[in-house]
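seq as requested:
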Amino acid sequence: MVQKSFGTNAQGAEIRNNKNRPDIEVTEKMMIEFSTWELEAALGACDANSACGPDGISNKDLISMPHSGKDALLRKFNELLRCGVWPDEWKCGEGIPLHKPGKDKKEINSYRIIVKSSHLGKTLERMCLRRLQCLIEEKRIFTDEMAAYRPLRSPQDCILEICTDVE
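struct tokens:
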């Protein structure tokens, strides 16, 4: 196996690519323009009943957009991807304290905060996440023993494997 050099570190040692370090191919795949399918999949994963974000746009608005609107949104997302820009208004959210039932309203710990943020930003995040997850699995960046936050895997799978090995 040929390893690519990535220069040297502060101590002068050569830095080489290994199976746990994404290579330039991963970066290139992340930069491919998003497809209509990726946008539709991200919108399909949205909760249509969630509240509007601070921009006044709801998931229901995004899901029910006509094809021309979705095409325009996809062009905007791809432009942001090409430029490497994340709009400032998508970085902000409105924090709303919700009282926990049965808790003393005078205590700060009796509240949980929900943050209303832009559904446009959440949709683009979901598209990036799905692509990144696919690349991580394709490149086998995580070991098979890592189960949490991975599709079709769970920590319970690891527990079952350990119990089986012990028996």
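The two ends are 38 Å apart (CA to CA).
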